[in-house]
Amino acid sequence: MCVITDISEELAAHIADTRYESLSRAAAEAAKKSLLDTVGVILAASGMEPAVRPVVELARESGSKAESLLLGFGERIPVAAAALANGAMAHCLDFDDRTTWGAHSGSSLIPAVLAVAEQKGGISGKSLIAAIAVGQDVFVRLRCNVLNDHQWNLSTVIWHDASDL
């Protein structure tokens, strides 16, 4: 039996051990709604927000690996570039989901989860929803315990590593 001696180990174990079957119904439903909301906002931004063009162009120029979809544009780009550009589109219209105190987990988390899942391939829908739900859980836990007296958007620095989907 492994003895957890550090809060980061406890958090990592929580992330690694979370499966769809262990989610509450409310957590699974919230993750599904957040996924739909985030993809919808990304698609809307891809067609109507001129401010996304520079980040989309930067993402397109980032390399030749066709790993993950640039949503709304029908092309594949490197995984990190897809996460960045899709994340920018997810937040730029400011219609992304938010907690009651205004933090946006979906626009930070879901583009990264989708990009990595697509790069890896073979990820089930249940695993995708579990990754989003545990990411939201960790986001909220961290956000509730980090002071937000800085004049910047804390949502963008509280990120979940989706590489363990």
Mean pLDDT comes to: 84
The best one-word shape is: globular
Task: Estimate percent helicity.
Answer: 55-70%
- Strand neighbour order, sheet with most strands: 1-2
Put simply, the count of helices is 6
Known CATH architecture: Orthogonal Bundle
- CATH homologous superfamily - what is it? 2-methylcitrate dehydratase PrpD
CATH class: Mainly Alpha
Number of domains: 1
The rounded distance between the terminal residues' Cα atoms is 24 Å
Strand content: under 5%
What is the CA-atom radius of gyration, in angstroms?
Answer: 16 Å
SSE run = HHHEEHHH
What CATH calls the topology is 2-methylcitrate dehydratase PrpD
Structural class: mainly alpha
* Total beta-strand segments: 2
Uncertain segments of ≥5 residues (pLDDT<50)?
159-165
